[in-house]
Write a structure and sequence with these properties.
Immunoglobulin-like; binds copper (II) ion; binds 2-acetamido-2-deoxy-beta-D-glucopyranose; 6-stranded mixed sheet; Cupredoxin; 7 helices; copper
C-alpha cells in the first residue's frame, strides 16, 4: 500500500496550494481528499502494486462461474492481502459545499480493497476519530463470514465498537467474488463518508477488455450524520430525511445560490464531476455500487446499452438494459462497449435518485470520454427516455437468473416479520421490525453472549433464535408507507416473491430463484426470502441509514449449539475490555439503535 499512498499524496499535493484547477473545477484534495476515483488518473483494475500484486493466471483453477457452487466450494490461494485503515475526521467539499466527514485514510470514497477469490483479507483498522472521540466498527458487506461471524463488524451484535485511539484487526476469507463495499456499521457513520469499494476477482464467462473499477453512486447530505439523526429522533421529528445532492464516485456540482440564507458554510460552484475514459471499440466492465444512505439509484449512460453480468456477489445470465436500478447496498457489474460514437465523442453517465424519495438535487452526472475526446469539453449527449416507476422497487424478478443454478429447497421454518412505523410515548418516530424497535448494547455483543451459552436477551435487542433450522423462509410484510432495501448478513438469500399487498404463495422460478444480499420491498407490499442458514448471529435489516438508526433491525441466531462451540479469537474479548474501559470514563452518546 505504501507506494499507492505515496502516489496519491504526490498527485494531490501538487494541486493543494490553489483552490481551482486549470479547467476551473475545485482541486481534488478539496473535494475528495486522497481519493483518485472519478478522475482520469484512477487506475484500471487489477492494480499491480509491489506487495499486493495478483498472481498471474487464474488462482481459482478449474472453478468457473457457471459450473461451481460458490457456497460449497472456495479456492484456497494461500495469499493474504493486507490493508491499513486509519479512520479520522476531515473537512471536504465533494460537491463544493464544505462539510465535516469521517474518512478512511483521508480518502472519499475510501480506498479500494482488492483481492482474488479465496484470498485472505486482513484489515488493521485504527480508530483515530477525535474532536469529539467516537467508536467505530467496519462491516464487509456481502461476505459469508462462515466460520468467522465475529469478523462481520456490527457493534453490539458481533463485536464491541473499536474505542478511540485503539486498533482492531479484521481477518476473513474472500469467500465470494465480484463487487462490494465496506462501511461503518456504527450508528449512521457511513452516511458521513465512512465507506469504500471492494473488488474480488473471480472467474467470469463473459469477455471484456478493460475493468474500469468501482463506480459508487451515493446520495449526499450537507449536514453531519449525527445532527441529522438527532433531529430525526427528537420528539415531533420526521422519519423523512431530504438529501441535498447525488454523487458519482464522490463528485458532483452544487448550485451554491440555493444555499439557505444565513448559512455561511463555504460553498464553491463548479466542484467538478467525475470523468471516465472509454477505449473506442472496447468493452468495459463497470462495477456499480449504491453506497448511499437512503436513495434508490437509476444508473444509465446516454445512448449506450448496459449488459448486466452480476448482481451483488451473484453472477447472472447476461441481459441488456438501458437503466440499472440499485437500492442502498446493492451492486451490479455491467459491460459497456464503446461503439456508439467516434473516437472523439463524449457522453453523459447519469444516476438519478428515484422520485419515491424527497431530494433537493437528485440528478448525478459524470463525463465519459472516448479515447481521443478533449476532456475539457462537456458532453452534449441525449438521455435515455425511460420512465421512473417511482416505486423504489428493484427491476422485475424474472429478468435475472443466476448463472449457477440452485433450486429452492423446502423450508423447515417459516416466519412472518412485519415492518411498522410508529411514534413512541415521547412522540419520537421509530421503526418496528417483527414487533420490536431495536436498540443494541455496545457493551454486550449478542455473539459473545451466545458463545458463552447465554441465549436470553432483553427484548429490545430483537434477537430471533432459529434453533437448528437451516432452510429458513421469511415473509416480510411492509405495513409502512415507504420502500425498504432489506439486507441479510452472511448469506445470499433466495428471492421468492415481491409485490403489493399480501403474498399469494407464488414463487418466481423455484428451479433457480434470483439470489442477492439486498432486495427491496415496496411500500405496503411484501417480500419473501429464504436462506440456507449458516451458524452465526446475522443481522437482517433495512439498509437505509436513517431507518436502521430508528430501530429497523433484527438479529437471527442460526445453529446456537454450533455458535456456542465456536472458538472466538481473544482479540474480540480484548476489544470489549478496551471499550468497557473507554466507555467507563467517556460518555457514549448513543442517539440511535447503535447500528
Ligand atoms: C513490501 O514488504 C516488505 C516486507 O513486509 C517491506 O519491508 C517493504 O517495505 C514493502 N514494500 C512496499 C513498497 O510496501
Ligand atoms: C407529535 O409530533 C407531531 C409532529 O410530528 C405534532 O404535530 C404533534 O402535535 C405531537 N404530539 C404531541 C402529543 O406532542
Ligand atoms: C446485448 O446487446 C448487444 C448489442 O448491443 C448484443 O451484441 C448482445 O448479444 C446483447 N446481449 C444480450 C444478452 O441480449
Ligand atoms: C434521469 O433524469 C434526466 C433528467 O435530468 C432524464 O432526462 C432522464 O431520462 C432520467 N433517466 C432515467 C434513466 O430515469
Ligand atoms: C422514545 O424513543 C426515544 C429514542 O429512542 C427514547 O430516547 C425515548 O426514551 C423513548 N420514549 C419512551 C417513552 O420510551
Ligand atoms: C444473559 O445476558 C443478558 C444480557 O446481558 C443478561 O441480562 C442475562 O442475565 C444473562 N443470562 C444469564 C443466564 O446469564
Ligand atoms: C441441534 O443440533 C445439534 C448437533 O449439531 C444437536 O447436538 C442438538 O441436540 C440439536 N438441538 C436441537 C434442539 O435439536
Ligand atoms: Cu450491510
Amino acid at each position: 500500500m505504501g507506494s499507492l499512498r505515496g502516489l496519491l499524496e504526490g498527485v494531490v499535493d501538487t494541486a493543494l496550494d490553489s483552490l481551482y484547477t486549470a479547467t476551473g473545477s475545485l482541486t481534488q484534495s478539496r473535494t475528495n481528499g486522497l481519493s483518485l476515483l472519478g478522475t482520469l488518473l484512477a487506475p484500471t483494475l487489477p492494480l499491480f502494486l509491489t506487495n499486493n500484486s495478483l498472481p498471474d493466471g487464474y488462482p481459482w483453477g478449474e472453478l468457473t462461474d457457471e459450473g461451481t457452487n460458490p457456497y460449497t466450494e472456495c479456492p484456497r490461494t494461500g495469499v493474504t492481502r493486507h490493508y491499513d485503515f486509519t479512520v479520522s475526521r476531515a473537512s471536504i467539499a465533494p460537491d463544493g459545499y464544505l462539510r465535516d466527514v469521517l474518512l478512511v485514510n483521508g480518502a472519499f470514497p475510501g480506498p479500494l480493497v482488492e483481492a482474488n477469490w479465496g484470498d485472505t483479507i486482513v484489515v488493521d483498522v485504527h480508530n483515530d476519530i477525535t474532536g469529539p472521540e467516537e467508536g467505530t466498527a467496519i462491516h464487509w458487506h456481502g461476505f459469508l463470514q462462515h466460520g468467522t461471524p465475529w469478523e462481520d463488524g456490527v457493534p453490539g451484535i458481533t463485536q464491541c465498537p473499536i474505542p478511540p485511539r485503539r486498533s482492531y484487526r479484521y481477518e476473513f476469507v474472500a469467500s465470494l467474488y465480484g463487487t462490494s463495499w465496506y462501511h461503518s456499521h456504527y450508528s449512521a457513520q457511513f452516511a458521513g463518508g465512512l465507506f469504500g469499494p471492494i473488488v474480488i476477482h473471480g472467474p467470469t464467462r463473459e469477455n471484456y477488455d478493460i475493468d474500469l473499477g468501482p463506480i459508487l453512486l451515493t446520495d449526499w447530505y450537507h449536514r453531519e450524520y449525527f445532527d441529522i439523526i438527532e433531529e430525526m429522533l427528537a420528539p415531533g421529528g420526521s422519519a423523512k430525511v431530504v438529501s441535498d445532492n447525488n454523487l458519482i464516485d464522490g463528485k458532483m456540482h452544487f448550485d451554491c445560490s440555493t444555499v439557505a440564507p444565513g448559512d455561511n458554510t463555504p460553498c464553491f460552484d463548479n466542484a467538478g464531476v467525475s470523468k471516465f475514459r472509454f477505449q473506442t471499440g472496447k468493452t468495459h466492465r463497470l462495477r456499480l455500487i449504491n453506497g448511499g444512505a437512503d436513495g434508490v439509484q437509476r444508473f444509465s449512460i446516454d445512448e449506450h446499452t448496459l449488459t448486466v453480468i452480476a448482481e451483488d456477489f451473484v453472477p447472472v445470465k447476461p441481459y441488456n438494459t438501458s437503466v440499472v436500478t440499485l437500492g442502498v447496498g446493492q451492486r451490479a457489474d455491467v459491460l459497456v462497449t464503446a461503439n456508439v460514437g467516434e473516437p472523439t465523442s463524449a457522453f453523459w453517465m447519469r444516476s438519478n435518485l428515484s422520485s419515491c424519495l424527497p431530494a433537493r438535487q437528485p440528478y448525478a452526472v459524470a463525463a465519459v470520454y472516448y479515447d481521443q475526446a478533449d476532456t475539457s469539453t462537456t458532453p452534449s449527449s441525449r438521455a435515455w427516455d425511460v420512465l421512473d416507476p417511482g416505486t423504489c422497487t428493484n427491476d422485475d424478478l424474472d429478468i435475472t437468473e443466476p448463472l449457477f443454478p440452485i433450486p429452492l429447497p423446502e423450508p423447515t421454518l417459516t416466519h412472518t416479520m412485519d415492518i411498522e412505523l410508529f411514534t413512541n410515548a415521547s412522540n419520537v418516530t421509530l421503526w418496528k421490525f417483527n414487533g420490536v424497535s431495536m436498540r443494541a448494547d455496545y457493551n454486550s455483543p449478542v455473539l459473545l453472549l451466545a458463545n458463552d451459552g447465554n441465549f436470553t436477551y432483553p427484548p429490545q435487542w430483537n434477537v430471533v433464535n432459529q434453533h437448528n433450522h437451516t432452510a429458513i423462509r421469511i415473509i416480510v410484510n411492509n405495513r409502512s408507507p415507504s420502500a425498504h432495501p432489506m439486507h441479510l448478513h452472511g448469506h445470499n438469500f433466495y428471492v421468492l416473491h415481491e409485490g403489493p399487498g399480501e403474498w399469494d404463495g407464488t414463487i418466481v422460478r423455484p428451479s433457480n430463484p434470483r439470489r442477492r444480499d439486498v432486495y427491496s420491498v415496496r411500500s405496503k407490499g411484501h417480500l419473501v426470502i429464504q436462506f440456507d442458514g449458516a451458524p452465526g448471529v446475522w443481522p437482517f435489516h433495512c439498509h437505509i441509514a436513517w431507518h436502521v438508526s430508528g430501530g429497523f433491525m433484527a438479529t437471527l441466531i442460526v445453529k446456537p449449539d454450533e455458535v456456542e462451540r465456536m472458538e472466538i479469537p481473544r482479540d474480540v474479548e480484548k476489544n470489549c475490555r478496551a471499550w468497557a474501559m473507554w466507555s467507563k470514563y467517556n460518555v457514549v452518546d448513543q442517539i440511535d439503535s447503535g447500528t
